[in-house]
Design brief:
This protein has about 375 residues and is mainly α. The protein has 15 helices and two strands. Helix 2 packs antiparallel against helix 3, helix 3 packs parallel to helix 6 and helix 9 packs across helix 11. It is elongated, with a radius of gyration of 27 Å. The mean pLDDT is about 85.
Length: about 375
């Protein structure tokens, strides 16, 4: 890649991250806490890109101590993204004093940098930054770098686990849940995993004696960041904010789901019959906003017991239990209409769905076909 083109790419990247950061700081739409946390992350990345530019292109700076500042950010990325994830997922999520624990490594690293600024001479700091520029980094520095990356990966995977737990809990309560609303969150976490994986590879190459690959990994990181920030800009424009914050934070901190429950086989059968009779006779599954709490009130069965009945009696969660009934209804509508006057969207609403993506996902899950494929198969006489 042409050196001038690479310099331009650096400046564009720095500007884009800075622009999105300022936009999020003043953005009044969405979740205020989430916006501010993401703004801080993007601001730190823009500073890191600027520092990287100085190192790569050997720009002389009068105060080389400033080049060490972005090293402290590495201890902040993980905790910030973890808290960002929780702020997106949970209703009324707020920062608390206990969260300071996550930032202790960051605060310690800040104190170390302050100590270096105060006690180390400009010449000694310049010597260190010159070693970094030339990739003549001591082994203990490399080990610290790998430890920092491990710290980041811990929080990134912890965030992904939080999303999985959240979705599992939601599916025990709600019959309608559009996972598309969390595509942006997942995209961001996966992108940071890829970005820091490239950084990990960049750090490991000198260990195995492949210094010639450092330029390639650097270019890959820059190009991926360019793709990432532009994809974020596009996703911000198209993002839906519906069906968010369905659960309070405390909902995932409870003990084992059915610990201590004494539901006998006989009671399980009675509750299953009662549930099935009510849901099918009253066609309650056609209510797109139906929740397990609604059925709990109608059947006079505690929601925890009802959830256990569905999980143990039908080997699925509430979400799949209701949506399988909706898909079967949609199949009947498709099969019984002779003139195909109803559109896919009309069938979707008539069977209890309120989202095309949810309809397609559920239909595909229970039939291995999309609604369109199913109807086309009926027309050809190949679907039963």
């Amino acid at each position: 890649m042409d050196i001038n083109l690479l310099k331009i790419l650096f400046f564009i990247l720095c500007f884009q991250f800075l622009f999105v950061s300022f936009f999020l700081f003043q953005n009044k739409k969405g979740i205020a806490l989430s916006n501010k946390i993401l703004a801080i992350v993007f601001l730190m990345i823009s500073i890191a890109i600027l520092n990287l530019y100085v190192l790569v292109f050997q720009v002389i700076v009068k105060i080389p101590h400033l080049l060490l500042i972005d090293d402290t950010f590495m201890f902040a990325y993980g905790p910030l993204l973890y808290i960002f994830t929780q702020s997106v997922l949970f209703k009324g999520y707020q920062l608390k004093k206990k969260h300071i624990v996550h930032f202790l490594p960051f605060l310690i690293s800040v104190c170390v940098i302050i100590g270096i600024i105060i006690f180390e001479t400009t010449a000694s700091v310049f010597h260190v930054t010159d070693q970094i520029r030339r990739q003549n980094i001591p082994l203990n520095f490399r080990i610290i770098e790998l430890t920092i990356l491990g710290h980041i990966f811990y929080y990134l995977f912890k965030s992904k686990l939080e999303i999985s737990k959240f979705i599992g809990k939601v599916m025990d309560i709600y019959s309608t849940f559009n996972q598309d609303n969390f595509k942006l969150l997942r995209f961001m976490l996966n992108s940071f995993i890829i970005l820091f994986s490239l950084s990990l590879l960049h750090s490991l190459l000198p260990f195995i004696g492949i210094k010639n690959g450092l330029l390639i990994t650097l270019l890959l990181m820059i190009l991926f960041m360019f793709y990432f920030i532009n994809a974020i800009l596009l996703k911000f424009l198209n993002q839906s904010s519906k069906e968010r914050h369905l659960l309070p934070e405390t909902s995932l901190s409870k003990k084992e789901k059915y610990a201590g429950s004494k539901l006998s086989d006989a009671d399980l059968k009675i509750f299953m019959d009662k549930l099935w009779g009510h849901v099918t006779a009253e066609q309650r599954f056609l209510d797109s906003r139906l929740t397990i709490n609604d059925l709990s009130d109608e059947l006079d069965i505690p929601s925890k017991i009802l959830s256990q009945v569905i999980n143990e009696g039908y080997s699925c969660n509430f979400f799949d239990f209701i949506n399988k009934l909706r898909v079967n209804t949609a199949k009947r509508i498709f099969t019984n209409q002779s003139d195909n006057k109803l559109t896919i969207q009309e069938v979707m609403y008539d069977s209890g769905f309120n989202s095309k993506s949810s309809f397609n996902t559920a239909f595909k899950k229970f039939t291995n076909l999309t609604p369109t494929q199913f109807r086309n198969g009926l027309e050809k006489g190949s679907t039963s």
